[in-house]
Sequence to fold (69 residues):
Amino acid sequence: MLCTEGAEVYKLIAQHPGIVHRPKNFAPSQRVVGGIYHIQNFNTYDSLLKQWMVGIDSVATYYLESYHC
Fold:
């Protein structure tokens, strides 16, 4: 399942077989889609992902010689 903010590029990705797209383009008065896709769920997962990614800055220097450009 691909949950996104509804950008056009994600619609293209979601055309691949087996991908279900749930865009986060809720109407201002709408809070839940399909009974389970709640706006706060999207916001929570987005926040958790951003917090997790804080520590990921770049490629580890230990492995730099392994990369061939």
